[in-house]
Design brief:
- InterPro entries: ExbD (IPR003400).
- One of its GO terms (molecular function) is transmembrane transporter activity.
- Helices cover about 25% and strands about 20% of the residues.
- The chain has 4 helices and 8 strands, in the order αβββαββαβαββ.
Length: about 160
């Protein structure tokens, strides 16, 4: 018969951490490749309205965004609480839209310029007057492909 020994508890061997840096760098590279950086810092609060029938844009690189909403709290002392237009990272007026569209066209390849879509991201509580003014300026700039950004209604 065999004898069981219970001399004492044995220490567990240490876990090897030699492969830990490899794993960390692999995760780092994965997130660097998979993450897209936000192109524009929003200066206005936007809660887009809901819609029942929504289609996604296929080529987002051909989209220019115009944001309309109430300025964020840190900008309200300067710009007030009325809805404002934001083009790229700065506040703008309706008169600046034609120059914005022209610069967006110039930044694209020549064969893609006529496929440029303008997306309006407008707060749901913004009055329609400012949207109508924006649409008139877009017509003057010959930017006739227009998209309204919404969120899909949960059913």
């Amino acid at each position: 018969m065999s004898k069981f020994r219970k001399d004492g508890k044995k220490d567990l061997p240490a876990i090897s951490t030699a492969s830990l840096p490899d794993i960390v760098f692999m995760l780092l590279f994965f997130f660097m490749v998979a993450t897209t950086m936000r192109e524009v810092d929003l200066n206005v609060d936007i809660m887009v309205p809901e819609a029942k029938e929504v289609t996604k844009l296929e080529k987002k690189d051909l989209v220019s965004n115009i944001y309309v909403g109430v300025p964020m709290r840190k900008f309200q002392k300067t710009f007030g609480t009325e809805p404002r237009i934001q083009l790229n990272d700065q506040f703008a007026t309706v008169e600046d839209i034609q120059a914005f569209i022209a610069s967006e066209r110039e930044s694209r390849k020549e064969e893609l310029r006529n496929k440029l879509t303008t997306s309006l991201k407008v707060d749901q509580y913004t009055k329609m007057g400012i949207v109508t003014d924006i649409k008139q300026e877009l017509r003057k700039a010959s930017s006739l492909k227009l998209n309204y950004s919404t969120r899909q209604t949960a059913e």
